[in-house]
Each structure stands twice: as structure tokens, then as C-alpha cells.
Design a protein that fits this description.
Length: 339
């Protein structure tokens, strides 16, 4: 995992050096992520660095990334945005701490005429529509919830007896949610259950707890549930792989006679490894590499006034969407070859 306070990547250059003989030779990009300890965001950041290196070589330009972590504080992130603007960066890339509180960052960027690419945490549509230099790169949240539900439904249809420990024909589950009020968390939670039920499977919720996307919190919540329901939980649904892995940690420690099945979302390296080892029945790949490519290519397109590559579509002049991919033991080997 990258430990980020402030990281400068590649050769820096001054405002005066950005152009040579009147032609732009590089771009400076300020990147603020909501929290450096989020495994998926760490993976996306690593991919962002690699994509910037690739584009530097491909275009013969200089790219400077200034990457900072807001430590889950919107106030800190607003200060970081102000610092980027004071340094006269060409474009800002923001992974919002609070998707409903983008106003301050947008106001500062608009006043300074600096474009902004929001990513991974989708801001409110009305905020994005305020200015033609605001963009969003990410996936569609409900898609991941639907796919997670499809994995569960498929497994139930193939061998429900392997999940239905008490033989009552009902799927008893617990839910590990991300942040309270977070769009991805609420949508994933809603659509995974909706998809399972639409497949004709009866469900019963035994527990639902916030674990803030964090593995250790997932383990704590799962440990409590295993004490409360020692042999009743048949399925653990987690809004991301880290919380799912935390649940697996607890299950391995408690060692129930018939451990529940566990499923995650994100397709992180550790999540894919858990699918490979059959600790998880599946996950839904959230394309960190594709999102990183979209961010860097869009930044280059905006700053240099160039067209995006043909394989990257800018929807409504605002959005770059990267599709999710279902991952189970059936295709895990193929997915791992692509990582």
C-alpha cells in the first residue's frame, strides 16, 4: 500500500517551464484522495502513477502528479484543493471525502479557472452540472450490487443445499456496509438484495452493520455476529473486499462448524486471491486500471485540447464510465492474467 502524505512523481517544472517556444510541454496535476488506507484507492493511485508514466513516454511530455491524502476529512481536502490552486496546477483530480459536499472545492476551482476531474466517489449531479470544466470518472454503483446479487443467485440455483445450512429454504445473511450515507454503500446494499430476491430466493437479514470499508472493522462486526448467531449465518455480503476479508479473518478465528459463504466487491489483489483460494465465493471487479487510464487521458485531453482515444467515451461531455466484471472461481484464472 502506498503511504501518502505528499508525493511528487516525475520531474517537476515551474510555471514558466510549462511551455517551450510557445508550445505546452507538460502538465501539473493535483490529486487528493479521501483516504490512503483504502485498498482499492491505493490500487487506483498506483495505476494512476503507471498511466502517467506511460503517457509521458507516449506523448513526449512531462507530467507532475502531486498526490495527497485527506485522511477522511473534507476540511483537510478543501485545504489541499486551495493549496493546489495556489500552486497554479493545471488540473485537479479529486476523490471526494463527502460526495454531497463538493461546493467549496468547485467554487475555488471555478474562481481560478482550473478544471476538475472527480473520481471513484460520484458527486451530486447538480454539482457536476455547475460548470463545463467539471468531470467524473468511475463505475456505476448499482451495477456492482446487481452483479454481486447475480453471483449469489447463481450459486443458490446450482446448489442451494450447500448454502442453506438449516434446510429451511431461506437464505440467512448479514450485511457489512461501507460508510453511512455513502452512495456506493447504500446502492450496493439495496441492489444486491433486490437482485437475489428477484431470482426467487427468500432471504432473512440477521444483521446489518457499518464497517467503513475497513478490514479490521469487518472482522470486529463479524466476530460479534458469530457469537450472537453461532451457526445461523449462511451468507456474508460485504460492500467491498476489505470488509469481506475482515469477515473471513473472524470466521477463521472462530472456526464455526459450517462457515458461512462470503462475497465482496472491488476485485482488489487480495480479494482476487481470496476467490482463488475459495475463501470468497466471488467478487465484482471495479476496474482501477481502467479508471486511472480514464483520469490521465481525460486530464491530457482537457489541458492539451486533444481528442480522447477512441476506446474511451466521454458521456454527455462529463462522464467516463468503466464497467464492472463478475469474478468467481469459474473465471478467476482468466481475470488474474489481466491484472
Amino acid at each position: 500500500m502506498i503511504c501518502i502524505v505528499i508525493v511528487y512523481i516525475f520531474s517537476g517544472f515551474s510555471k514558466e517551464q510549462k511551455r517551450e517556444n510557445g508550445e505546452r510541454k507538460g502538465m501539473r496535476v493535483g490529486v487528493s484522495i479521501y483516504n490512503q488506507y483504502d485498498t482499492f484507492i491505493s490500487s487506483l493511485t498506483e495505476s494512476l502513477i503507471e498511466e502517467a508514466k506511460r503517457l509521458e513516454q507516449e506523448k513526449g511530455i512531462t507530467i507532475t502528479l502531486d498526490i495527497v491524502s485527506a485522511g477522511s476529512s473534507q476540511m483537510t481536502q478543501n485545504y489541499q484543493v486551495e493549496e493546489f490552486i495556489n500552486k497554479d496546477y493545471d488540473i485537479l483530480c479529486i476523490n471526494l471525502v463527502d460526495r454531497t459536499d463538493a461546493t467549496t472545492a468547485i467554487d475555488m476551482a471555478m474562481n481560478a479557472d482550473i478544471p476538475v476531474i472527480f473520481f471513484n466517489r460520484e458527486l451530486v449531479e447538480q454539482d457536476l452540472e455547475r460548470w463545463n470544466k467539471l468531470f467524473y470518472v468511475g463505475a456505476v454503483a448499482l451495477e456492482s450490487g446487481i452483479m454481486q446479487g447475480q453471483i449469489v443467485a447463481q450459486m443458490c440455483q446450482e446448489d442451494f443445499a450447500s448454502i442453506d445450512k438449516n434446510g429451511d429454504g431461506v437464505l440467512q445473511y448479514v450485511m457489512l456496509e461501507g460508510e453511512a450515507g455513502h452512495q456506493d454503500s447504500s446502492i450496493r446494499t439495496e441492489y444486491v438484495i433486490k437482485t437475489i430476491m428477484e431470482a426467487g430466493i427468500q432471504v432473512e437479514k440477521l444483521g446489518d452493520e457499518i464497517a467503513n470499508w475497513i478490514r479490521a472493522q469487518g472482522e470486529t462486526r463479524m466476530s460479534q455476529w458469530l457469537k450472537q448467531y453461532p451457526d445461523e449465518i449462511e451468507l456474508v455480503i460485504a460492500n467491498n473486499d476489505d470488509m469481506a476479508l475482515g469477515a473471513i479473518d473472524a470466521i477463521k478465528k472462530e472456526k464455526p462448524a459450517r462457515p458461512p459463504k462470503v462475497i465482496g466487491i472491488d476485485g482488489t489483489d487480495v480479494g482476487l486471491e481470496a476467490v482463488k483460494n475459495k475463501d470468497m465465493i466471488g467478487t465484482v471487479l471495479n476496474d482501477s486500471k481502467g479508471q486511472a487510464e480514464g483520469i490521465i487521458e481525460l486530464a491530457y485531453s482537457v489541458i492539451f485540447h486533444k481528442k480522447l482515444p477512441e476506446h474511451i467515451e466521454l458521456i454527455d461531455g462529463k462522464y467516463i464510465r468503466k464497467p464492472h466484471v463478475i469474478v468467481t472461481e469459474d473465471n478467476i484464472d482468466e481475470i488474474l492474467t489481466l491484472k
